[in-house]
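Methods: holo model generation. Sequences were used as deposited, without trimming of termini or removal of tags, and paired with ligand SMILES retrieved from the corresponding compound records. Each pair was processed once, and we did not select among multiple samples. The sequence and manganese (II) ion SMILES for this entry were:
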Amino acid sequence: MSEYFDYAMDTHPLPGESCCGDTGVIRCQGHQLQATLVDVLGHGAEAAALAGDIHDQLENMPLTAPEPLLLQLHEDFRGSRGFVASSILINGNSGQFDYCGIGNIQARIATPQQHQFVNRDGVLGYRIVKPVTHSGKLIDDSILIMHSDGLSSRFRHDAFMAVSRQDCQHMLAHMFRHYDKHHDDSSCIIIRWRPCN
Ligand SMILES: [Mn+2]
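and the model returned the structure below.
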């Protein structure tokens, strides 16, 4: 939680595994929030080890615009087994955001507007096409959802609206309860921008 944002994140390993190859980092600095979600290819101990290294790297980087952040991760982990990632940087005063994604992390603004972000193809650490930054402006009370392909993308807006007044931790539980496919590591980040609080 911060003055401007409510947020929650969780990762679940594939059933039967004790460690997870999905990871995420949410950081607030001043009025800015940065959230990055990463899905390392495959699962199990080797994927989790790389996810841990990427997590540490993200924790130690200054808040960075998403496109250079992903390019930096691509360089830093070149030759690794590879991963997909999406990152967003939000200004808590204005709601202005920059978003960038490579690979199949799903990201959407669920409400009050509805917007599905489109990522470029590629595998970070291996081969990517030039990333594209999507910039925009949230409106009050916007809810942003990012999740890996361990959760189904068959998002039901009407069902989500029923929980959208709850805090992000509850919305996150809803996502894992209804969308976890249980055949891959899964991860989800939910952020609500609340400029008036
Ligand atoms: Mn996956």
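Residues 39, 148-150, 184-185 surround manganese (II) ion (CB under 6 Å).
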